[in-house]
């Protein structure tokens, strides 16, 4: 018999954990630059529509499966099967999700380690330890290995404490802190020269781009994958939700939180980039687009902080604390996916599962550090561009085509007795059965065809 499962003690705890899972490094550095290069507010409008039209239905699919099964992804999907073939498919999708999320965590830990190193570099500056600060701010095999391992230790510590005393407790502390730091940084950056230029790029619409297929697919990909969909993290969190909770309402709140923080992050990142430009720092890449991804965080913004003098040290510290928090709230949800499987399917203690899986992923991370130029981009591409979209497609297929419609409705009714008369049930089944699979395949095809 498997060990007793945890459960979130409150709606607030679940919302903070689920929003923390969705709000990660990619949201903070990816969404704003994506918007700026795709028509500004025109992209924002398209993104908002697609987030609720497509990403929210897909999120609900995972939450409903998870709460129905009260189990890990493998057990949950296998339990929805109609026969041996769909049972094997469910097991395969569950295992593929665990492998994918573990590999995502392996490279995510490296980038998160960079955030921690920059955070400590700012602290070293404050303490007057310039040599240490320089070492922490400069990429090297030793630094990257140490901080990758350190970040994984933090992740293991939180997940080992369990759902209520680990994931929920720390997410409930870290997410409000993240929002407060984000707002404080926005207020400060808005006072600097160049900030208004970045704000205009972000918020002034270029409606000529709305009909652009590239913008549509880019917004769809951002909306769908920013919610941590496809690899089972939301399924696992859904399995820890009480049967008394109204799932459509909870899913809507998570979607609103994720969108709200992503859009708010744009109010920091884009103005900061144009403040950097006003200070003579290059913010465009060789192709003429805005620098995004890790290059933005480890090159453009640190150079800006250096030019701010003493204030830059404090601003840099606050920014990298923000990034470390965003990293940790996402990483704990990733590790929980394979941990829940090992605990439930193999009757292992949580402590042992966390230790074995965490150390295994850390070893993979260190191998990526050692072979960074060869393996890092390859693993990122395989997991986020190829595996994750396909897994998202199969989750939609399981809810839309394999799980009996009455079974889905029965599960939703447990926390929402009048669900059948509500707008959600009149629209969502059609979306998850037809629209979501087609939309996901469209994104997948776009990625494959470039």
Summarize the structure.
With 450 residues, the chain is mainly alpha-helical.
User: What is the typical, i.e. mean, pLDDT?
Assistant: 89
Strand-and-helix sequence, N→C?
HHHHHHHHHHHHHHHHHH
Treating each run of at least 4 consecutive H or I residues as one helix, how many helices? 18
Taken as a percent bin, the fraction of beta residues is: under 5%
Which spans have pLDDT < 50 for at least 5 consecutive residues?
none
Portion of residues within helices: over 70%
CATH architecture term: Up-down Bundle
Terminal Cα separation, in Å? 48 Å
Largest β sheet strand count, sense and barrel closure: none
Give the overall shape, derived from the CA principal axes: globular
Which structural class do the helices and strands define?
A: mainly alpha
What can you see in these coordinates?
The chain has a single domain, classed as Amino acid/polyamine transporter I. The longest helix has 43 residues, at 84-126. It is 79% helix and 0% strand. It has 18 helices and no strands.
List keywords for this structure.
450 residues; mainly alpha; 79% helix; 0% strand; Amino acid/polyamine transporter I
């Amino acid at each position: 018999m498997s060990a007793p499962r945890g459960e979130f003690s409150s709606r607030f705890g679940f919302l903070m954990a689920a929003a923390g899972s969705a709000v990660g490094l990619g949201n903070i550095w990816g969404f704003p630059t994506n918007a700026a290069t795709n028509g500004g507010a025109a992209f924002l409008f398209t993104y908002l529509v697609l987030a609720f039209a497509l990403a929210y239905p897909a999120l609900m699919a995972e939450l409903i499966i998870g709460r129905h099964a009260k189990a890990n992804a493998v057990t949950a999907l296998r339990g929805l099967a109609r026969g041996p073939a769909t049972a094997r498919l469910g097991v395969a999708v569950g295992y593929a999700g665990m492998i994918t999320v573990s590999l995502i965590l392996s490279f995510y830990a490296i980038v998160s380690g960079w955030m921690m190193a920059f955070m400590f570099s700012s602290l070293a500056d404050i303490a007057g330890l310039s040599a240490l600060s320089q070492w922490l701010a400069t990429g090297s095999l030793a630094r990257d290995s140490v901080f990758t391992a350190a970040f994984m230790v933090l992740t293991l510590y939180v997940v080992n404490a369990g759902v209520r005393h680990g994931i929920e407790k720390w997410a409930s502390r870290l997410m409000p802190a993240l929002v407060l730091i984000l707002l404080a940084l926005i207020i400060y950056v808005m006072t600097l020269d160049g900030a208004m230029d970045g704000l205009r790029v972000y918020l002034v619409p270029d409606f000529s781009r709305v009909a652009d297929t590239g913008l549509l697919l880019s917004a769809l990909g951002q909306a769908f994958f920013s919610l941590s969909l496809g690899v089972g993290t939301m399924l696992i969190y859904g399995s820890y939700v009480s049967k008394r909770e109204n799932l459509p309402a909870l899913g809507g709140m998570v979607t609103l939180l994720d969108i709200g923080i992503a859009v708010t992050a744009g109010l920091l990142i884009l103005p900061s980039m144009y403040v950097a430009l006003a200070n003579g720092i290059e913010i465009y890449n060789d192709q003429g687009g805005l620098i995004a991804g890790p290059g933005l965080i480890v090159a453009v913004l640190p150079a800006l902080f250096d030019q701010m003098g003493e204030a830059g040290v404090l601003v840099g510290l606050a920014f990298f604390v923000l990034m470390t928090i965003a990293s940790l709230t996402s990483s704990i949800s990733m590790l929980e996916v394979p941990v829940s499987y090992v605990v439930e399917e193999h009757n292992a203690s949580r402590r042992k599962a966390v230790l074995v899986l965490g150390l295994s992923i850390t070893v993979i991370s260190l191998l990526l550090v050692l072979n960074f130029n060869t393996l890092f981009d390859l693993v990122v591409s395989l997991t986020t561009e190829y595996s994750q979209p396909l897994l998202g497609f199969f989750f939609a297929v399981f809810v839309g085509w394999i799980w009996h419609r009455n079974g889905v409705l029965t599960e939703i009714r447990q926390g929402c007795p009048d669900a059948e008369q509500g707008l959600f049930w009149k629209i969502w089944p059609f979306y998850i059965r037809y629209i979501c699979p087609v939309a996901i395949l469209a994104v997948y095809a776009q990625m494959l065809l470039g």
